[in-house]
Write a structure and sequence with these properties.
By secondary structure, this protein is of the alpha/beta class. It has one domain: Vaccinia Virus protein VP39 (Rossmann fold), CATH 3.40.50.150. Helix content is 50%, strand content 19%. The chain has ten helices and seven strands. The protein has helices spanning 10-24, 28-36, 39-51, 68-83, 87-96, 106-118, 159-169, 189-209, 212-224, 228-237, and strands at 58-62, 98-103, 127-131, 144-150, 170-181, 241-248, 253-259. It has a seven-stranded mixed sheet with strand order 3-2-1-4-5-7-6, with helices on both faces. The termini are far apart. The protein binds S-adenosylmethionine. S-adenosylmethionine binds next to helix 1 and helix 4. Component of a multi-subunit COQ enzyme complex, composed of at least COQ3, COQ4, COQ5, COQ6, COQ7 and COQ9. Interacts with PYURF; the interaction is direct, stabilizes COQ5 protein and associates PYURF with COQ enzyme complex. Keywords: Membrane, Methyltransferase, Mitochondrion, Mitochondrion inner membrane, S-adenosyl-L-methionine, Transferase, Ubiquinone biosynthesis.
């Protein structure tokens, strides 16, 4: 295989992904900062600003992990609420706000719930933690105003199923947004980035989480993920309109979006 790494068969894939997130659930956020040099915070901010959250919205954050994206959405809505003149009306709206953090791994959700407590969001009824699979969501058709998936779709077994489910649960007018590690399209920077990902990231994984193989696998999975244009066409095939993407840092990360019309 490329770079001499062992091939991972499909049935091993979900187990591998499970291992990686169980082994790092507790220091997952530290790892994110380490690997991205803190940039993942800016990328998530960008994702949420594209979503344009509003009080009263129903939102589903799939592969939500420890709640990073959902906290940002809720904080944005809380800020809108603080600025609002008609507090009574806004209180009513907040009652209706629901941000579902859905993840297949209960360890991640547990860490997320502790983080919510630390942030003073523990009693916020708007935040709902749900264990579930992106490929078979337990939500009704046409119930969500927004859907986000950040650094989650790359590791699922069937991307098409995830996209079909996203389309199903969204209301008409609802927005799909996906933040994912993607393909660098700038020469020279691409070579540097390959070196960083194939040499530096597994080394950091070994140092911090004591787990080189899993991080090597994650790097390989970035390689295998469809390039930006191909992924955009998969989103359109799922039924979404106005599909577009934005590259950040030359394509290290891309934000894809689509509308259900
Ligand atoms: N979105 C969070 C963030 O950006 O910090 C977490 C991203 S983390 C890299 C990927 C998450 O996807 C993990 O928490 C993992 O448990 C979850 N995951 C993997 N496969 C999944 C699936 N089929 N359905 C739901 N979640 C899944």
């Amino acid at each position: 295989t490329s770079f001499g790494f062992k091939e991972v068969r499909e049935e091993e894939k979900s187990q591998m992904v499970g291992n990686v997130f169980s082994s790092v659930a507790s220091n997952y956020d530290l790892m994110n900062d380490f690997m991205s040099g803190g940039l993942h915070r800016l990328w998530k901010d960008r994702l949420v600003s594209k979503l344009n959250p509003f009080p009263g919205m129903k939102h589903l954050d799939v592969a939500g992990g420890t709640g990073d994206v959902s906290f940002r959405i809720l904080e944005t809505i809380n800020n809108i609420k603080r600025r609002a003149i008609q507090d009574v009306l806004e209180d009513d709206l907040m009652e209706e706000t629901r941000i579902y953090v859905c993840d297949i791994n209960p360890n991640m959700l547990n860490v997320g719930q502790s983080r919510a407590l630390e942030k003073g969001l523990g009693k916020d009824k708007s935040l709902v933690w749900v264990e579930g699979d992106a490929e078979a969501l337990r939500f009704e058709d046409g119930t969500m105003d927004g859907y986000t998936i950040a650094f989650g779709i790359r590791n699922v077994t069937h991307i098409e199923k995830v996209l079909a489910e996203a389309y199903r649960v969204l209301k008409r007018g609802g927005r799909f947004l996906c933040l994912e590690l993607s393909h660098v399209e700038v020469p020279l920077f691409k070579e540097l980035y390959d070196y960083y990902s194939f040499s530096v990231i597994p080394a950091i994984g070994e140092m911090v989480a004591g787990d080189r193989d899993s991080y090597q696998y994650l790097v390989e999975s970035i390689r295998r993920f469809p390039p930006q244009a191909k992924f955009a066409s998969m989103i359109a095939d799922a039924g979404f309109q106005k599909v577009e993407y934005e590259n950040l840092v030359g394509g290290v990360v891309a934000i894809h979006s689509g509308l259900k019309i």
